[in-house]
């Protein structure tokens, strides 16, 4: 990795020559290289442009479940990599599940140099399906990356109804990550216990299990801590206020 060409310390070489107590010279990697790596990892993270501004500081919790979710997300970043599993943000649309997931990976990239990848599950499946019979190598490369990247976010789980084929795709990724103890963050609008949610009447009648199947649901709950978030859809509330103005 070549350093920053404008770095005043290494002049872009990426290395600093130092001398030890015995007069021996050795090369040490310049701090600008770490900065360059973090910039590259951020570009390769796949965070959609819509969510690039998501941070912990601009997530505004309005109830106890959202306050707890924010606290859990921050603690996850603080403890990483000494965490026992991932997180599963579950709740109705517009309560900040994706916001918190993006804030987590952005902080881990910037503060701890983590390699992370964000995928909307629908997009991931569509991309892989589009390569069948035309560019299987590309599809396999995406599957491999999703399976092996240090930290993976699978957003909007259940939005794409699971068929036998799509279940196979997601199962391959999740089982590989499970077996190799790789950390995964999940989000889903679909829930199992609607009595928890204040806005339960707005939730889809289908459950998470009916959307993704029992086996996948069970495995995900083994891999990640469930974080239930309740609240009114922020986007609907915002638009309503705008219209009133």
Characterise the protein shown here.
It is a single chain. Helix 5 crosses helix 6 (164-179) and helix 6 packs parallel to helix 8 (214-223). The protein has helices spanning 31-43, 64-79, 97-112, 121-130, 136-148, 164-179, 208-212, 214-223, 234-244; strands spanning 15-19, 25-29, 86-90, 116-120, 151-155, 183-188, 224-228. The radius of gyration is 21 Å and the shape is globular. It is built from 9 helices and 7 strands. The strands form 2 sheets. A 5-stranded parallel beta sheet has the order 4-5-6-3-7, with helices on both faces. A two-stranded antiparallel sheet has the order 1-2. Helix 6 (164-179) links the parallel strand 5 (151-155) and strand 6. The protein has 245 residues and is α/β, with parallel strands linked by helices. The protein folds into 2 domains: 1-43, no CATH class; 47-244, 3-Layer(aba) Sandwich (Rossmann fold). Residues 238-245 have low confidence and may be disordered.
Q: Which secondary structure elements does this structure contain, and how are they paired or packed?
A:
Elements: E1 15-19, E2 25-29, H1 31-43, H2 64-79, E3 86-90, H3 97-112, E4 116-120, H4 121-130, H5 136-148, E5 151-155, H6 164-179, E6 183-188, H7 208-212, H8 214-223, E7 224-228, H9 234-244
Parallel strand pairs: 3-6, 3-7, 4-5, 5-6
Antiparallel strand pairs: 1-2
Helix pairs in contact: 2-3, 4-5, 5-6, 6-8
